[in-house]
Specification:
Layout: E1 4-10, H1 16-22, H2 27-34, E2 35-39, E3 53-59, E4 62-64, H3 65-77, E5 78-84, H4 86-90, H5 103-113, E6 131-136, E7 146-148, H6 155-166, H7 176-179
Parallel strand pairs: 1-2, 1-3, 3-5, 5-7
Antiparallel strand pairs: 4-6
This protein binds iron/sulfur cluster (SF4).
The site of iron/sulfur cluster has 13 residues, from α1 and α4.
Length: about 180
């Protein structure tokens, strides 16, 4: 049987959800047996998101143009996309800047007003992706197949969600243990 092509993606998040994924400990060996990890910030140095990915965990909100471009590519190339953690599901912490009415006030506050001297706003789209005006959860932009909330989701919750997928079954996301935020 072909192995499941598995990926994880890191958008605008603190990487805490990926750290929780690494807390799976010995279950990581079961995952390694069952999948080909084809793209992930924690497992390899593959630069391009491949075609025909079976399952992808997407951590983080959409906060900049790079996030948006990658998410659209991920959706196009992925069969089962999981919104992974509260930043992906609700936009959570990255969306706190939405209260400031756009990206300009945030950039001015960070890089000019709080600068000791000679502050300047970084502007190089090749190096610093431009911020979007509003931070959004990923399901506002693409279709999501499963929501896996938590900040971060506990390792047990991640295991409960992934284990059925490895057997070709859809996980049951019910009850406090599986769908509580925070
Ligand atoms: S949901 Fe929490 S742990 Fe995960 S990326 Fe966001 S802030 Fe970090």
């Amino acid at each position: 049987m072909d192995k499941i092509k598995f990926a994880t993606v890191w958008l605008a998040g603190c990487s805490g959800c990926h750290m929780s994924f690494l807390d799976l400990d010995e279950f990581l060996f079961d995952i390694a047996e069952a999948v080909d990890m084809v793209y992930s910030p924690v497992a390899s140095d593959i630069k391009d998101y491949p075609d025909n990915v079976d399952v992808c965990l997407v951590e983080g909100a959409i906060a900049n143009e790079e996030n948006l471009k990658l998410l659209l590519e991920v959706r196009r190339k992925t069969k089962f996309l999981i919104s992974f953690g509260d930043c992906a599901v609700t936009a959570n912490v990255p969306a706190m800047r939405n209260m400031l009415n756009g990206s300009d006030p945030v950039l001015k506050r960070c890089y000019l007003e709080l600068s000791d001297h000679g502050g300047q706003i970084p502007k190089d789209p090749e190096i610093v992706p431009p911020l979007l005006e509003k931070v959004q959860p990923i399901h506002h932009v693409v279709e999501v197949d499963l929501f896996l909330p938590g900040c971060p989701p506990s390792a047990q919750r991640i295991k409960n969600a992934i284990a059925p997928l490895l057997k070709g079954e859809k996980p049951i996301m019910e009850g406090r243990d599986m769908i509580k935020f925070g």
